[in-house]
Design a protein that fits this description.
The protein is of the alpha+beta class. The chain is built from five helices and four strands. The longest helix has 13 residues. The chain is elongated. It starts with 5 loop residues before the first helix and ends in a 10-residue tail after the last strand.
Amino acid sequence: MKDLDAINRNILRELSRDGRISNLDLAHKVGLSPSACLRRVQELERSGIISGYRAVLNPSALGIGVIAYVTVGLSHHTKADQSAFELAIAPVKEVSECHNITGTVEYLLRVEVADLKAYKIFHTEVLGALPQVSSITTYIVMGSPKDERA
């Protein structure tokens, strides 16, 4: 992580909590004048530390009743199989995150579906149908006491 002073860390913390906070309110919370605060936020954006702003969505309001983390092992540990898997999984709407990871398997997926029946269909007809996949392990989320993803 880049070397940030306390004021920039405070700005990032406040923006992480509320990306829609007004510059005036942000400046007040971090103890700067509005113009100095705006300059710092713009520099954080220019430097790539702040790469964007997004809405935090309510899964249940979207009809998502089951969230699962799924580990996927591939049959062969080749670049070609990884590329084929990534290409196949990219358009799948149930997969909200796909991470190539270290360890005993190659991928960790975040899967969001309406219910267990929908997950079974995804598991069987999507993941199970990919020729590169050799193992699938599912972890169903029962609660999220801490979730700071934006």
